[in-house]
C-alpha cells in the first residue's frame, strides 16, 4: 500500500470515527432532551380575539412529566365541560397558564375549581391564561367569551399593564411541532442566550417581562411608549370589568406579587389604586400576598422565579381563590346555567 493510500485510509477512518461519535452523541442528547420533556411543545396561533392563543385539542407530557392539556375550547383544563357546570373563566398571563413544568391538576385554576366542586357543584375551569400577554389581550378574550361565562377570575402581575398587545411572532412561541427534541433545546438556547450576545446592551434595563433593554438615546421615547401601553391596558381592563358588571357576572380580581431573594415586593401605589377603583364597584378582591404569606412556606418555596408560582404557590393561591369562589357563589346565589 502506497503512502498516499495509507494517508487517505487514515483520513477516511478518522472521518468515519468522527461521524460515528457525532451520531451517537446526537442520539444521546436527543434521548436526554426527550427525557426532560422537550420535543412536544404546545402550539400557538393568532386568534381573532385575544391575539396569541394555544391551539385547541392538545395534550402533551412536558418538563418533569407534567401533563399540559388544552381542551377542544382552547382552555387549559383536565376536566370535561358538562351542561350543568358553573363556567369559571380564568384570565391572565403565564402566571395563570402555569407553564410546562406544572401539571394541569396542580394549577391554581384547577385547585380553586376543586374547592367549589367540593360544595356539590359541577365546575368547568376555563383557564384562558396565555404567556406574555397584557390586559388588552386578556380583555379581548373575555369579550369573546362573556356570553358563556358564569364567574370571572382575573389575576395578573402589574407588568401586564405595561405590555404591548401580544401576537405570535417569527421566533416565539412554537407554531409547529419540531421533528427532534434537540430542535426545541437549541431554539431555547438561541433565543435566551446566543441572540442577546450579538446585541448592543445598555446599562439601563427595564422590567425583563416588558422590555429586556432600552437602546441608548431612546429612554424618554420608550418611557412614553410604556405609559401609553399602560393607559391602553388599564382602559381595556376597566372596559372588561364594566361589561361583566353589566352582565351581572361575579368578578374576582387580584394582582400577583413578584419576589426577589425570598421577599415578596409590595404593590405599587398605581396597582393599589387600580384594585381600589374596581372594589368600589362590588368586585371581589383576592389578596394574593396574604394567601402566600399565610401559607407560611416563604416566597422562595412559593415561586420558581421572580414571577411564576411553584406547585406550592399554586396550591396556596388555589385554596384561597377557591374559598373566595365559594363566598361569591353564596353571595350571588348563582347556579349553573
How would you describe the overall organization of this protein?
The protein is α/β, with parallel strands linked by helices. The chain has one domain: Rossmann fold (3-Layer(aba) Sandwich), CATH 3.40.50.1110. The protein has helices at 3-35, 94-97, 108-117, 135-145, 181-194, 219-246, 269-279, 288-294, 299-302, 311-332, and strands at 44-47, 51-54, 58-61, 67-70, 86-91, 123-127, 151-156, 251-255, 259-260, 263-264, 284-285. The chain is elongated and about 95 Å long.
The CATH architecture: 3-Layer(aba) Sandwich
What is the helix fraction of residues, given as a range?
40-55%
Hey, roughly how much beta strand do the residues contain?
5-15%
Based on CA atoms alone, the radius of gyration comes out at 24 Å
Gross geometry:
elongated
Q: For this structure, what is the CATH class? A: Alpha Beta
Total number of domains: 1
> The CATH topology is what?
Rossmann fold
The largest sheet is: 5 strands, parallel
Low-confidence stretches: 202-206
Through-space gap between termini: 88 Å
For the residues shown, what is the average pLDDT? 88
Structural class: alpha/beta
Element-by-element helix/strand order: HEEEEEHHEHEHHEEEHEHHH
* CATH H-level homologous superfamily name: SGNH hydrolase
Question: Features of this protein?
Answer:
alpha/beta; Rossmann fold; two-stranded antiparallel ribbon; 11 strands
Amino acid at each position: 500500500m502506497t503512502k498516499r493510500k495509507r494517508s487517505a485510509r487514515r483520513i477516511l477512518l478518522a472521518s468515519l470515527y468522527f461521524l460515528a461519535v457525532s451520531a451517537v452523541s446526537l442520539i444521546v442528547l436527543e434521548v436526554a432532551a426527550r427525557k426532560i420533556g422537550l420535543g412536544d411543545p404546545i402550539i400557538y396561533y393568532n386568534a381573532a380575539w385575544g391575539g396569541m392563543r394555544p391551539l385547541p385539542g392538545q395534550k402533551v407530557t412536558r418538563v418533569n412529566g407534567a401533563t399540559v392539556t388544552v381542551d377542544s375550547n382552547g382552555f387549559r383544563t383536565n376536566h370535561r365541560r358538562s351542561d350543568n357546570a358553573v363556567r369559571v373563566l380564568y384570565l391572565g398571563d403565564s402566571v395563570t397558564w402555569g407553564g410546562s413544568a406544572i401539571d394541569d391538576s396542580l394549577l391554581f385554576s384547577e385547585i380553586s375549581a376543586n374547592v367549589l366542586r367540593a360544595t356539590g357543584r359541577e365546575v368547568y375551569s376555563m383557564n384562558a391564561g396565555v404567556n406574555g400577554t397584557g390586559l388588552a389581550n386578556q380583555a379581548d378574550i373575555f369579550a369573546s367569551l362573556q356570553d358563556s361565562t358564569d364567574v370571572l377570575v382575573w389575576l395578573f402581575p402589574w407588568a401586564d399593564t405595561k405590555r404591548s398587545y401580544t401576537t405570535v411572532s417569527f421566533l416565539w412561541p412554537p407554531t409547529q411541532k419540531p421533528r427532534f427534541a434537540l430542535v426545541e433545546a437549541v431554539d431555547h438556547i438561541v433565543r435566551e442566550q446566543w441572540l442577546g450576545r450579538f446585541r448592543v446592551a445598555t446599562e439601563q434595563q427595564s422590567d425583563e417581562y416588558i422590555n429586556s433593554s432600552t437602546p441608548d438615546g431612546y429612554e424618554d421615547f420608550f418611557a412614553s411608549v410604556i405609559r401609553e401601553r399602560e393607559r391602553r391596558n388599564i382602559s381595556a381592563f376597566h372596559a372588561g370589568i364594566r361589561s361583566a358588571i353589566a352582565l351581572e357576572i361575579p368578578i374576582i380580581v387580584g394582582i400577583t406579587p413578584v419576589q426577589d431573594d425570598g421577599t415578596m415586593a409590595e404593590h405599587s401605589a398605581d396597582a393599589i389604586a387600580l384594585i381600589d377603583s374596581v372594589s368600589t364597584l362590588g368586585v371581589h378582591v383576592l389578596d394574593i400576598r396574604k394567601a402566600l404569606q399565610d401559607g407560611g412556606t416563604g416566597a422562595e418555596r412559593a415561586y420558581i422565579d421572580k414571577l411564576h408560582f411553584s406547585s406550592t404557590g399554586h396550591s396556596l393561591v388555589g385554596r384561597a381563590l377557591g374559598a373566595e369562589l365559594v363566598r361569591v357563589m353564596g353571595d350571588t346565589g348563582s347556579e349553573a346555567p
